[in-house]
Amino acid sequence: QVQLVESGGGLVQPGGSLRLSCAASGFTFRNYALSWYRQAPGKERELVATITSAGGSTNFANSVKGRFAISRDNAKNTVYLQMNSLKPEDTAVYYCNARFVPGSRVYDYWGQGTQVTVSS
Q1: Cα–Cα distance list, 44 to 1, 8, 15, 31 (Å)
Q2: H/E stretch holding 28
Q3: What confidence tens digit (pLDDT) does each residue in 2-52 have?
Q4: In whole angstroms, what is the distance from residue 18 CA to residue 26 CA?
Q5: Where do the DSSP E strands lie in 42-111?
Q6: CA within 20 to 30 Å of 82's CA: 9, 44, 57, 72, which one?
Q7: Residues 95-118: what's their mean pLDDT?
Q8: CA 54/CA 10 separation, integer angstroms
Q9: Residue 25 burial by CB count (10 A; 0-12/13-18/19+): exposed, middle or buried?
Q10: Residue 54 — pLDDT band, cuts 50, 70, 90?
């Protein structure tokens, strides 16, 4: 049974930091590229950050570059999103995604999300 379980969300003041975690099980974690997405009320889900299966490459949305960092621990089957200098516009539900495309098949898994609220 595939599971992605996010944790670490909450309420934080502007300028603060949070670290999100996503614990995975039920699939071969090291084969998957991992991403964090977010969805704010009334807006479409957007890609925040991605890390490749080997962890050698990362990409970030322009809106979070220089403030967020993504990392993975393949021994713990966990991906992290370190969020610094948070802004009210970072408020959203954050989702963990795991994706593996071996040839013509696509394996795509999602977590249930964790709420991040940035407010004074």
Answers
A1: 28, 22, 24, 28
A2: none
A3: 999 999 999 999 999 999 999 999 999 999 999 999 999 999 999 999 999
A4: 27
A5: 46-51, 58-60, 68-73, 78-83, 92-100, 107-110
A6: 44
A7: 96
A8: 29
A9: exposed
A10: confident
Phi then psi for residue 106, to 5 deg, are: -130, 125
The amino acid that residue 31 corresponds to is: N
d(CA 69, CA 65): 8
Nearest to 42 by CA among 84, 112, 89, 108: 89
Instruction: Compute the CA torsion angle 51, 111, 62, 14 (nearest 10 deg).
Output: -120
Q: Residue written as tokens 């890609």?
A: 47
Which residue, chain included where needed, has tokens 């989702």? 95
Structure tokens at 83: 């969020």
The DSSP bridge partners found for residue 72 are: 79
DSSP classification of residue 19: E
